[in-house]
């Protein structure tokens, strides 16, 4: 730290100075609330300048942003400067400039006599405005420093280390807010990208002849494609769970359910042909198959399957010629590749689509080696297992596999889904016919979608984690100041300020630890907050009883309500005494009688409220905060004397999005 004027290190600073520091802390808290609610970076920077000027009682403040190519600092935001300068004026970023020194070294700079300054030159911008003294601190978040926060004054006087502490705390909070805004912008970008990928995936699914569906780990159907619902005439509610069995032909239900339960129990693929009742009452043959999706721990949280209409194919078994014609038309319309492998002679026929996937010419001979050489090395085992299953005389001859193909022509990797059917003669496989479909778009989109959702949740939690850490740092600074003063009044005031910051920090801790990033379970939060406040105020042996019901509140309501609870409990711990002994205090939180809102009650067995007590006429900061915050919540606050002592009741409606 560079300072020309020594700090006032007396153990008992004058009360006006203490009130000034408390007001500064309140301004930082005010800025934190502003930053939480505002998503415009420029508005946040402008508000930081206003807070800096108000907190240090000066006429000028500014945020300077580096311009590396110009070795300069841009006047990005400010207060007090002549019109037209903000967004255009520049200051040198070298070590000879006070702001440049603070930015490059990370050390705060105090210049109380710019006209006599020997260490730095006075920037022209400040000289033109008659600035006599200045204080600079770096704006630092989690990444690269954003710039410098500076307060300037035309008046004689001296900035001191306490002013540095205030300005640095404000700059740190600003750094977190800047990180939050950057993260929000990134989330918006990811959301836009996610929407595009979802639309792309939706089009791919709509064009796919197979009808997708999904089931949970227990085998209960949780999602059916609209096409399947349209075909069967069932609603999603009718088909969920095991309701889909109602659409299966009575003669096929037992086998279908048995095969499905076997797949769930063993974790093996499900594949069955069944007759499905259409919306008009007719039955059609459909093939349903599903594969388990394993997570990183080897568990199976979901099953993904597809149903395809094979009615024509089943009927075509009675008329081979007609079957081949229909199959050819269907394959062409669905953009599927067709293969035919004569297992006796070894002859293999591929159509143009499969040749394109493998990257081989139209006239090039095809052998099993051609097929196997194109399979990705990591998928060779899976492909061989599917082939062995298809050729097993003890099986049904069907195979279904998904694997990667390395195209010979350009080494591009393509994901394909292959389905085959083996014909047996005298217990030996003689022919394998099937289709191949390029599913690369589907696989890639699904992976990107999963990563985007994970990144979005991680970014939101990281924002709350950083805000909580910064607020904890502010609380720590307040507790350090509390230990440094000897005045009882000062200690109490600093302890109260610390609890206010603590209540906000607890909200963000609850957010980044919870599954839902938009709401706070207020009952549990109130329990922990009460313990923290009692410990922070040295009232660990206080007789506090907490009855808090479980209730989720939106963050915009939980934050002010937490501050109100903090103020009411602090007030009770300070004033509700009989002699030197603490009296019982009851805290209750739960739904209101009409179930549409909530009620917070803080009651004590103390001396009660003075006659004619009116919160709105009280001069204390705590009561003023309660009145202001309750107005923000559109809540009613009732303060009465009971037979035991004082009781405060806060009631409000739960806001819904």
UniProtKB/TrEMBL annotation:
Q: Which residues form the PAS domain?
A: 197-267, 323-394
The EC number(s) attached to this protein equal 2.7.13.3
Cite the Gene3D superfamilies for this sequence: 2.10.70.100, 3.30.450.40, Histidine kinase-like ATPase, C-terminal domain, PAS domain
Enumerate the SMART domains for this protein. GAF, HATPase_c, PAC, PAS
Enzyme class label: transferase
Reaction equations catalysed: ATP + protein L-histidine = ADP + protein N-phospho-L-histidine
Q: Which UniProt keywords apply?
A: Kinase, Phosphoprotein, Transferase
What InterPro entries does its record include? GAF, GAF-like_dom_sf, HATPase_C_sf, HATPase_dom, His_kinase_dom, PAC, PAS, PAS-assoc_C
Domain named Histidine kinase: which ranges?
462-656
Under Pfam families, the record lists: GAF_2, HATPase_c, HisKA_2, PAS_3
Q: Where is the PAC domain?
A: 270-322, 399-451
Q: Sorted alphabetically, which PANTHER family does this protein's record hold?
A: PAC DOMAIN-CONTAINING PROTEIN, PHYTOCHROME-LIKE PROTEIN CPH1
Q: What protein name does the entry list?
A: histidine kinase
Species, as recorded: Paracoccus angustae
Q: What is the lineage of its organism?
A: Bacteria, Pseudomonadati, Pseudomonadota, Alphaproteobacteria, Rhodobacterales
């Amino acid at each position: 730290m560079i300072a020309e004027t020594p700090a006032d290190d007396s153990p008992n600073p004058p009360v006006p100075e203490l009130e000034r520091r408390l007001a500064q802390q309140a301004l930082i808290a005010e800025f934190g609330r502003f930053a939480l609610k505002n998503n415009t970076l420029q508005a946040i920077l402008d508000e930081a300048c206003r807070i800096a000027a108000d907190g240090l009682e000066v006429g000028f403040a500014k945020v300077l942003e580096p311009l590396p190519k110009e070795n300069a600092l841009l006047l990005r935001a400010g207060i007090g400067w002549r019109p037209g300068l903000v967004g255009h004026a520049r200051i040198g970023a070298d070590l000879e400039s006070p702001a440049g020194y603070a930015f490059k070294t990370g050390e705060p700079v105090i210049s109380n006599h710019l006209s006599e300054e020997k260490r730095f030159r006075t920037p022209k911008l400040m000289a033109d405005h008659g600035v006599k003294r200045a204080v600079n601190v770096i704006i630092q978040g989690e990444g690269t420093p954003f710039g410098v926060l500076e307060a300037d004054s035309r008046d004689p006087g001296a900035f001191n280390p306490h002013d540095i502490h205030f300005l640095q705390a404000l700059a740190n909070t600003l750094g977190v807010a800047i990180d939050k805004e950057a993260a929000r912008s990134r989330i918006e970008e990811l959301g836009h990208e996610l929407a595009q990928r979802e639309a792309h995936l939706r089009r791919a699914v709509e064009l796919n002849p197979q009808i997708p569906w999904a089931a949970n780990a227990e085998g209960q159907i949780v999602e059916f494609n609209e096409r399947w619902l349209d075909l069967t005439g069932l609603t999603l509610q009718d088909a969920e769970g095991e309701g889909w069995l109602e659409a299966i032909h009575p003669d096929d239900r037992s086998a279908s359910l048995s095969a499905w339960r076997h797949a769930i129990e063993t974790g093996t693929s499900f594949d069955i042909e069944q007759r499905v009742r259409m919306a008009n009452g007719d039955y059609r043959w459909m093939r349903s198959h599903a594969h388990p999706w394993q997570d990183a721990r080897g568990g199976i949280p979901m099953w993904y399957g597809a149903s395809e209409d094979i009615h024509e194919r089943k009927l075509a078994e009675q008329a081979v010629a007609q079957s081949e014609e229909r199959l050819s038309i269907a394959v062409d319309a669905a953009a599927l590749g067709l293969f035919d492998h004569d297992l006796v002679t070894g002859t293999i026929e591929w159509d143009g689509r499969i040749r394109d996937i493998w990257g081989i010419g139209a006239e090039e001979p095809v052998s099993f080696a051609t097929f196997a050489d194109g399979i990705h090395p990591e998928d060779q085992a899976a492909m061989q297992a599917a082939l062995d299953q298809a050729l097993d005389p003890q099986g049904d001859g069907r195979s279904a596999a998904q694997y990667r193909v390395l195209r010979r022509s350009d080494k591009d990797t393509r994901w394909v889904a292959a389905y085959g059917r083996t014909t047996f003669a005298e217990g030996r496989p003689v022919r394998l016919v099937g289709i191949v479909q390029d599913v690369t778009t589907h696989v890639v989109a699904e992976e990107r979608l999963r990563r985007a959702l994970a990144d979005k949740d991680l970014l939101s939690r990281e924002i709350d984690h950083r805000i909580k850490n910064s607020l904890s740092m502010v609380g720590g600074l307040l507790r350090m100041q509390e230990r440094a003063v000897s005045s009882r009044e000062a200690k109490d005031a600093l302890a109260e300020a610390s609890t206010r910051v603590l209540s906000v920090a607890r909200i963000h801790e609850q957010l980044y630890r919870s599954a839902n990033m938009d709401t706070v379970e207020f009952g549990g939060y109130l329990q922990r907050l009460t313990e923290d406040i009692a410990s922070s105020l040295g009232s660990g042996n206080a007789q506090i009883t907490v009855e808090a019901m479980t209730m989720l509140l939106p963050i915009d309501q939980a934050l002010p309500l937490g501050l109100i609870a903090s103020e009411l409990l602090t007030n009770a711990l300070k004033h509700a005494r009989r002699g030197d002994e603490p009296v019982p205090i009851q805290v209750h939180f739960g739904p209101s009688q009409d179930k549409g809102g909530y009620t917070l009650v803080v009651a004590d067995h103390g001396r009660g409220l003075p006659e004619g007590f009116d919160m709105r006429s009280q001069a204390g900061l705590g009561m003023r905060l309660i009145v202001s915050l309750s107005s923000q919540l559109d809540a009613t606050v009732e303060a009465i004397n009971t037979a035991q002592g004082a009781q405060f009741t806060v009631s409000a409606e739960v806001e819904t999005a």
